[in-house]
């Protein structure tokens, strides 16, 4: 490696991106192309960076498998940052295997962190956790250890494990300080905000209050009958019933839970579940059918009794009923939750992360754009969506893994 390449690499490592570019800007050999690609990525010029890295990967000779693998890892990181989640993961896994086989342990660990972060974003928490478990963070260099702990914290937050997330973030902060990388420390600080802002609202016996993630974790361990409006499920102790694919039933269940111990009038249930403004006999008949279905579905957890004016829940004796609601009730909350990370997303990547069809996500984005909550820019394959400022809109509870949206 010549002196200019060495100097450019040292400049990149120290954060002097422009200094690195000055040293290799006019060169088109493979190492220079790779360094120019990484420098452009650090400047936020992702499209140019990807082109340069692909040229570099092609320019490296057949005996330079490690250098090509490093280019693939760098391009995968750019794809992750620009939320291009549709790329095949096999290419990155193969690059990681090459790096491990040739003893480039640091870059192999970096590739592993990138793979885990991608799996976390698309809601495949178990696979992300398994990938991290194969590595031993104590032996990592500080920067890689911080990245590893950030992914660990992200998984814990999605699993609503506040204490575990807090411990991982504390370790990530310590490693970031040891690494001396300000951007990494800022990432840790940003991730830590998830533990300090309301993650949900607790609705019980006619009262309502915001909850931090740690409080949500505590609520989930109590004996209360919980109607989780963030994940559309009903749970009591170790039993849960998911109503994620039955929005009408969950709307009825939530209305009954919010009113408990009082009943809910039939007309109010019709408004909540069907949006009916004028009640007729067909609405009443449909309500009877849906209440029958809900009663059968929730029978292992709670009874539903008819009253003179409507219906009410009949939980087991000495059992409280609470509703965990999102911090902001929003029809397209899952899309907003992903966009709240401040990055620009393509609609196809949003669809992949949410497990929804591209058309469904596109309709949600159009509704949000009409209300001024998201903005689009770019054309064709570069078309991206970003969130407008949504005060007090955390993502923690809204993304408990792959979420379906209506």
Automatic annotation (TrEMBL):
Superkingdom of source: Bacteria
One Pfam family named in its UniProt record: HTH_29
Identification of the protein by name: Helix-turn-helix domain-containing protein
InterPro entries named among the record's database cross-references: WH-like_DNA-bd_sf, WH_DNA-bd_sf
Cited SUPFAM superfamilies: Winged helix' DNA-binding domain
